[in-house]
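Q: Could you fold this chain for me?
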Amino acid sequence: MPAQKRKRLRGVVDTSVLVAGIAGLNSLDITPKNPSAKLLRDWIEGDTFVWLVSDEILLEYKRVLGRLGVRRPTIGKIVNLLREEAEHVRASSLPNISPDPGDDPFCACAETGRADFIVTLNLKDFPQSLLSAHVIRPGESIPTTARRKQPRRS
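A: Sure. Below is the predicted structure, expressed as structure tokens.
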């Protein structure tokens, strides 16, 4: 009987982490400069988790990277990589989970895609009590346990 395949955990990456990670990866030949960059590098090199995205999340990534002056060809490479390697989720909108309505698509993707975790630099925008996924910061260990029990809905 073959060895049991380890279940890869599923995660949603907030735009703040993607931006910080890109800023901390000047070259693939050097050590990542911050925890967000290490998370991205580990995902690229080690396939450490299933990255979940939705159409709204990809649009947000493109919009923010463009606003920050990232060159269009670089944005295209990032988005194309995610289209190829991430798992696309058709996220239905969930009303008013985050105090920041701009983060609701990330919450919806996490809930619809059955994410085990959401990684963000803005913990206050992802109320743990309303989400099944563990909410973590870059640099924290990816949870070894799957999703939490059903969240409390107001």
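A (continued): The chain has one domain: 11-136.
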